[in-house]
Amino acid sequence: MADPKISFAETFLCSAFAACFAEFCTIPLDTAKVRLQLQRKAAGDAVSLPKYRGLLGTMATIAKEEGLSALWKGIIAGLHRQFIYGGLRIGLYEPVKTFLVGSDFVGDIPLYQKIFAALLTGALAIAVANPTDLVKVRLQAEGKLAAGIPRRYYGTLDAYYSIVRQEGLGALWTGLGPNIARNAIVNAAELASYDQVKQTILQIPGFTDNILTHLLAGLGAGFFAVCIGSPIDVVKSRMMGDSTYKNTIDCFAKTLKNEGFLAFYKGFLPNFSRLGTWNVIMFLTLEQAKKFFLREVIYD
């Protein structure tokens, strides 16, 4: 159980810091993932090759055409997102777990309770942070423009303002349905699997609560998150990057009809590279931040 000396505010700050640091380190991978997810198969043209091919190829194409800094497109909105979303989803996880099992509970918390707690915190956190996610995806989706064509947005603050002015305040919550579904599920896959994998590793003779354990648990969390969350992630990215879809079902149906089931796993390797790396960096940083700032680490 969580140590009572660790307050929600302290956990929130540690979680927000860890999430922001991981975001800054891995956003080039996320930009490549978004471009691959938004790339469509050319109708009636089976010969033409896709513009973006693979993780490294996509990153190289973006850097060549738009400059190296383009790989960090949306970083300000990404940091906004991680501070709010990362801080809330992780900061609330322990209190919600404790609430579900009761403060007098002794022993290992059941896996289903961990999953339920992470589903709740993921859904709540992204409902608050959805505008930041929308702006981040829109900025990442914009590639190199032809000469004379103005940019859709000229920065993060301009994107927030333009979306509200042109589409209304409610537009900041575009894609909220798939985003809640995606982030609740991915959060459950990440936090519950990290919790469970870490607990399992610590039961193996010779393993202790150290950096190696955190690294292995972080990789496990990233793998489970991508396997479970990829289809919803693709739908979420497409709805946020393209306003022509009517709703979640329309986006899912059109993608399935036009491109087949495998389209929902577009960018799988970049997604795993990104989420696996992100989870390792985030959980390692989180554990160390707790040690550094709070002078003791909280374990179940």
Which terms would index this structure?
300 residues; mainly alpha; Mitochondrial carrier fold; 10 helices; 0% strand; stress response; Mito_Metabolite_Transporter; mitochondrion; amino acid transmembrane transporter activity
Outline the secondary-structure elements:
Elements: H1 8-38, H2 55-66, H3 75-91, H4 93-101, H5 111-141, H6 156-167, H7 176-202, H8 211-241, H9 248-259, H10 268-294
Helix pairs in contact: 1-2, 1-3, 1-10, 3-5, 4-5, 5-7, 7-8, 8-9, 8-10
Structure description:
InterPro entries: MCP, MCP_dom_sf, MCP_transmembrane, Mito_Metabolite_Transporter. Helix 3 (75-91) packs antiparallel against helix 5 (111-141), helix 4 runs antiparallel to helix 5 and helix 8 packs across helix 9. The mean pLDDT is 84. This protein has helices spanning 8-38, 55-66, 75-91, 93-101, 111-141, 156-167, 176-202, 211-241, 248-259, 268-294. The chain starts with 7 loop residues before the first helix and ends in a 6-residue tail after the last helix. The chain has 300 residues and is an all-alpha fold. The protein has a single domain (8-148, 174-294), classed as Mitochondrial carrier fold (Alpha/alpha barrel). 70% of the residues lie in helices and 0% in strands.
